[in-house]
């Protein structure tokens, strides 16, 4: 529709054609209103029954809610209309009638279970507050990519069909690949590392990852969108700087460019992340958790942070924070240990007060140490030969991290369930749509 | 390395630390040079043997090619050096030694088969002309996304694990998903259509697609990166406008921002796409193919364009061009037919003179026609209920298209094999790295 005008751009005095969904019809007797909704908002269409063509009135007021119509006519100021303007229609065309029985009410007046919403995502996304979540998600991705380019990263795409998983055989979905066994990749980890050994040096990727985790919780997904970063010639401290930079860029961009969306979601006072993220060592973190008195069992060195511990620490700190220098044995083989204390790794996590967001660290770039690390974790280095052998030809020191965009959306917007941050989530029960 | 300087930024008079790979060592007797390479270029490091610390000379000149080193010292002008400057080292550290035997020569002096190159992508990407391809690819993605945002598109991510394929059971990789049969998605087609029926209206996605095609040719991949566009309230003509716009934006951005990379690849006269792409109907296209006299067998109405026909037409036209109004029976069920001639569809292809790039069209948005289309193509509409049922609740007229970024890179840069445009290609024989 070459000449279609968005409702938000219809100005008094214009002759326009608008098109969208029938949000509501209010019939007051001699006068009636059709509220038409499109991606940009809503506009009132006025029907003065006695003064207008009978067929036009009949079609316009007889159409069912959520049908798609286009309306042509003059835009006039009307202070009593919801947006201050209204259209007096000269013509109206029904482009796609809707069944009067809808499986979900897009006006949001009737609450729906998350499961019904996900089964009917098309209708669910006609609610402007749901639309707002996904517009904010898109803005986060845009801002993060822009930040990556500012710090000299090249965008890469690594394969999603792989012969071996990043961390061995667990949590992988098997594929039949022309008669061979293969898997859907659980992380670009090994591939992005191979690229920092090339002239690209510093790379990012935003793409899907697949984890056959049995969890079915409000914060886990079996398919997620991962933001991955990896760079040669930096250590874990500099990797944390870049990580903090991307998140701050995302919050800043959302604050600047998504005011309307934030307002719909109840954030009239959304604040960018101005403060530096505190960086605690793992040792400091467990001491601080124990000092809160909020955990049933005191943590001892070597324990992972439980959900309960994360919650206690998050409430105590009240902002994003890093935890560094984790025990080596709870970090994967590709994380480098401190040379002067092999029990201590150069891995880090970035935590939001509600949950873990990021895993990262300085990587082991020395061939012998890397192969020894595989063996320590019970993995067969031969299976990863395509990866390890490149470490024999000049692999620079490097560091990186990854976070799922869904958890960023979820924590930024205070969503209860991570499924609200994904158009078509995949979990143990849900494979369709 | 907080204070590392890229070689391209080392200016005479600076004291710098540079880090990278040992590209070459030239020993002339009393004087010797180490050429150090990083992501931005190369720099000469000078060793005057009699005037410098013996250990420093021994380490610097004893290191094997492709080892990773960092060098600190003063930058001086030196007209005879390849970049006009050189470093006199005060210290040199070997960060990662390389085996003297390399499986691939990153200097490019020794040719390698594509298969050896792909087995050793890390080393292959130390050639600056290979690096250039992937920097251009990243710039194409950046420019296309920017264009999409300029025309009001929202970025979406649709699932890659699905219960049914877009076009039925063929060419799908099966997955075991928690004991259920599932597939890797061959296209976001159905999901992006579901989104144009929501308030998002106009969407794009750049992500992986998976096709279990048996082809093993220089232009087919089993995993590719697809650029998908779909919009409500437009027809196929407007979809072609957006398609042409994205490609022109990509060429323009590469012309403006990748001069050095183009030059490395031999394109000193790279031209953006300024002319409008001709739009031929299918009927005009087959007539024109037949008139070239370059095809063994004359085409008749209903034939698909063979590789031979595409080649003849491409040479005749000599630029990108669209072919519109294809026979309905060779287009998929979701493409709308002309109401006044159901044998003729509103599908289109965008062709580069060398090959097909894009498939697109006006979609069928009317529920009854859509379900009839499924049946005509021998598909069971019940299996696609999650998709078809949304067409009963107000699905606007819409159109869209998709193209693989690899084919754009391949045709833009005149690459012989599509595998040169993918970091880690997947084909019938290749599953690793």
TrEMBL record, chains A, B:
<feature type="binding site">
    <location>
        <begin position="219"/>
        <end position="221"/>
    </location>
    <ligand>
        <name>ATP</name>
    </ligand>
</feature>
<dbReference type="Pfam" id="PF00152">
    <property type="entry name" value="tRNA-synt_2"/>
</dbReference>
<keyword id="KW-0436">Ligase</keyword>
<keyword id="KW-0460">Magnesium</keyword>
<dbReference type="Pfam" id="PF01336">
    <property type="entry name" value="tRNA_anti-codon"/>
</dbReference>
<feature type="binding site">
    <location>
        <position position="211"/>
    </location>
    <ligand>
        <name>L-aspartate</name>
    </ligand>
</feature>
<dbReference type="GO" id="GO:0005524">
    <property type="term" value="F:ATP binding"/>
</dbReference>
<keyword id="KW-0547">Nucleotide-binding</keyword>
<comment type="similarity">
    <text>Belongs to the class-II aminoacyl-tRNA synthetase family. Type 2 subfamily.</text>
</comment>
<dbReference type="InterPro" id="IPR002312">
    <property type="entry name" value="Asp/Asn-tRNA-synth_IIb"/>
</dbReference>
<feature type="domain" description="Aminoacyl-transfer RNA synthetases class-II family profile">
    <location>
        <begin position="134"/>
        <end position="433"/>
    </location>
</feature>
<dbReference type="GO" id="GO:0003723">
    <property type="term" value="F:RNA binding"/>
</dbReference>
<dbReference type="InterPro" id="IPR004365">
    <property type="entry name" value="NA-bd_OB_tRNA"/>
</dbReference>
<feature type="site" description="Important for tRNA non-discrimination">
    <location>
        <position position="82"/>
    </location>
</feature>
<dbReference type="GO" id="GO:0000287">
    <property type="term" value="F:magnesium ion binding"/>
</dbReference>
<dbReference type="InterPro" id="IPR012340">
    <property type="entry name" value="NA-bd_OB-fold"/>
</dbReference>
<feature type="binding site">
    <location>
        <position position="359"/>
    </location>
    <ligand>
        <name>L-aspartate</name>
    </ligand>
</feature>
<feature type="binding site">
    <location>
        <begin position="211"/>
        <end position="213"/>
    </location>
    <ligand>
        <name>ATP</name>
    </ligand>
</feature>
<feature type="binding site">
    <location>
        <position position="359"/>
    </location>
    <ligand>
        <name>Mg(2+) 2</name>
    </ligand>
</feature>
<comment type="function">
    <text>Aspartyl-tRNA synthetase with relaxed tRNA specificity since it is able to aspartylate not only its cognate tRNA(Asp) but also tRNA(Asn). Reaction proceeds in two steps: L-aspartate is first activated by ATP to form Asp-AMP and then transferred to the acceptor end of tRNA(Asp/Asn).</text>
</comment>
<keyword id="KW-0648">Protein biosynthesis</keyword>
<dbReference type="InterPro" id="IPR006195">
    <property type="entry name" value="aa-tRNA-synth_II"/>
</dbReference>
<comment type="subunit">
    <text>Homodimer.</text>
</comment>
<feature type="binding site">
    <location>
        <position position="363"/>
    </location>
    <ligand>
        <name>L-aspartate</name>
    </ligand>
</feature>
<dbReference type="InterPro" id="IPR004523">
    <property type="entry name" value="Asp-tRNA_synthase_2"/>
</dbReference>
<feature type="binding site">
    <location>
        <begin position="404"/>
        <end position="407"/>
    </location>
    <ligand>
        <name>ATP</name>
    </ligand>
</feature>
<dbReference type="GO" id="GO:0006422">
    <property type="term" value="P:aspartyl-tRNA aminoacylation"/>
</dbReference>
<keyword id="KW-0067">ATP-binding</keyword>
<feature type="binding site">
    <location>
        <position position="356"/>
    </location>
    <ligand>
        <name>ATP</name>
    </ligand>
</feature>
<protein>
    <recommendedName>
        <fullName>Aspartate--tRNA(Asp/Asn) ligase</fullName>
        <ecNumber>6.1.1.23</ecNumber>
    </recommendedName>
</protein>
<dbReference type="InterPro" id="IPR004364">
    <property type="entry name" value="Aa-tRNA-synt_II"/>
</dbReference>
<dbReference type="GO" id="GO:0004815">
    <property type="term" value="F:aspartate-tRNA ligase activity"/>
</dbReference>
<feature type="binding site">
    <location>
        <position position="356"/>
    </location>
    <ligand>
        <name>Mg(2+) 3</name>
    </ligand>
</feature>
<dbReference type="GO" id="GO:0017101">
    <property type="term" value="C:aminoacyl-tRNA synthetase multienzyme complex"/>
</dbReference>
<keyword id="KW-0030">Aminoacyl-tRNA synthetase</keyword>
<feature type="binding site">
    <location>
        <position position="167"/>
    </location>
    <ligand>
        <name>L-aspartate</name>
    </ligand>
</feature>
<feature type="region of interest" description="Aspartate">
    <location>
        <begin position="189"/>
        <end position="192"/>
    </location>
</feature>
<feature type="binding site">
    <location>
        <position position="356"/>
    </location>
    <ligand>
        <name>Mg(2+) 2</name>
    </ligand>
</feature>
<keyword id="KW-0479">Metal-binding</keyword>
<dbReference type="InterPro" id="IPR045864">
    <property type="entry name" value="aa-tRNA-synth_II/BPL/LPL"/>
</dbReference>
<dbReference type="GO" id="GO:0005829">
    <property type="term" value="C:cytosol"/>
</dbReference>
<keyword id="KW-0963">Cytoplasm</keyword>
């Amino acid at each position: 529709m070459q000449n279609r005008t968005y409702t938000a751009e219809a100005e008094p005095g214009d002759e326009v054609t608008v098109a969208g969904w029938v949000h509501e019809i209010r019939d007051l007797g001699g006068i009636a209103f059709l509220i038409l909704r499109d991606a940009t908002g809503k506009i009132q269409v006025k029907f003065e029954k006695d003064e207008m063509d009978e067929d036009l009135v009949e079609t316009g007021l007889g159409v069912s809610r959520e049908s798609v119509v286009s309306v042509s006519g003059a835009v006039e100021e009307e202070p009593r209309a919801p947006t201050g303007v209204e259209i007096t229609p000269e013509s109206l065309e029904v482009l796609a009638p809707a069944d009067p029985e809808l499986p979900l009410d897009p006006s949001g007046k009737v609450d729906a279970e998350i499961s019904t919403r996900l089964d009917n995502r098309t209708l669910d996304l006609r609610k402007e507050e749901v639309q707002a979540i996904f517009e904010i998600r898109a803005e986060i991705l845009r801002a993060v990519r822009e930040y990556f380019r500012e710090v000299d990263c090249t965008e890469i795409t690594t394969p999603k069909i792989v012969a071996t998983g990043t961390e061995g055989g667990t949590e992988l979905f098997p594929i039949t690949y022309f008669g061979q066994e293969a898997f859907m990749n659980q992380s670009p980890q090994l591939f992005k590392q191979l690229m920092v050994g090339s002239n690209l040096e510093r790379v990012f990727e935003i793409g899907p990852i697949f984890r056959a985790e049995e969890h079915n919780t409000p914060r886990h997904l079996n398919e997620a969108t991962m933001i991955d970063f990896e760079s040669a010639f930096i250590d874990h401290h500099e990797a944390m700087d870049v990580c903090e930079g991307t998140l701050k860029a995302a919050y800043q961009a959302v604050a600047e460019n998504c005011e309307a969306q934030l307002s719909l979601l109840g954030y009239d006072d959304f604040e960018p992340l101005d403060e530096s993220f505190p960086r605690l060592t793992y040792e400091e973190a467990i001491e601080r958790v124990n000092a809160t008195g909020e955990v049933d069992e005191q943590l001892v060195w070597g324990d992972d942070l439980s959900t309960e511990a994360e919650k206690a620490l998050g409430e105590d700190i009240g902002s994003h924070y890093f935890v560094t220098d984790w025990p080596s044995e709870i970090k994967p083989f590709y994380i480098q240990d401190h040379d002067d204390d092999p029990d201590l790794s150069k891995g880090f996590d970035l935590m939001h007060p509600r949950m873990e967001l990021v895993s990262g660290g300085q990587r082991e770039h020395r061939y012998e140490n890397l192969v020894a690390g595989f063996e320590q974790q019970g993995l067969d280095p031969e299976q990863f030969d395509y990866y390890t052998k490149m470490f024999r030809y000049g692999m620079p020191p490097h560091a990186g991290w990854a976070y799922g965009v869904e958890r960023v959306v979820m924590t930024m917007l205070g969503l209860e369930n991570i499924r609200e941050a994904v158009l078509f989530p995949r979990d143990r029960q849900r494979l369709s749509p």
